[in-house]
Amino acid sequence: MEKINVSMKVNGKEESLKVEPRTLLIHALREHLEYTGAHIGCSSSHCGACTIDMNGKSVKSCTVFAPQAEGAEILTVEGIGSPDKLHALQEPLLFLFLICNLQ
User: Fold this and answer.
1) What is the pLDDT of residues 8-48, one digit of tens each?
2) CB-based contact 52:38 (threshold 8 Å)
3) According to a count of CB atoms within 10 Å of the terminal CB, is the N or C end of the chain lower?
4) What whole-number distance in Å separates Cα of residue 102 and Cα of residue 55?
């Protein structure tokens, strides 16, 4: 299948990639652009692990094809807060990460 160019702004950074038209946005973000904060949880959009902000709206990125994000402004969990001061949404994720890795 022929790949197409897709450009978007992710966490304030201009990004471009070549993907097949059927590539889901979650796969483009994680596998092509290495933004791994959004996760593939249930593969049916029920769990919300893939949720991102696209053009100011919450979107489940497992239900959006990457070409649909052409020209979009995307914010992932990596784009909020900073290493010195976590955003309120990041704090519970760190807690869960620590619990999962201590077991």
Assistant:
1) 999 999 999 999 999 999 999 999 999 998 888 887 888 88
2) yes
3) C
4) 37
In Å, how far from its chain's centre is CA 87? 16
CB atoms within 10 A of CB 67: 16
Segments forming the whole domain that contains residue 41: 4-102
Give dist(CA 84, CA 92) in Å, integer. 16
For residue 25, give the 3-state DSSP assignment. Answer: helix
Q: What total of structural domains would you count in the chain?
A: 1
Q: Is the pTM of this model over 0.85?
A: no
DSSP 8: E
Separation of alpha carbons 75 and 58, rounded Å: 9
Q: Is residue 10 within 8 Å of residue 28, measured between CB atoms? A: no
Return the DSSP state at 24: B
Torsion of CA 12, 78, 28, 46, to 10 degrees: -120
Residue 79: which CATH number? 3.10.20.30
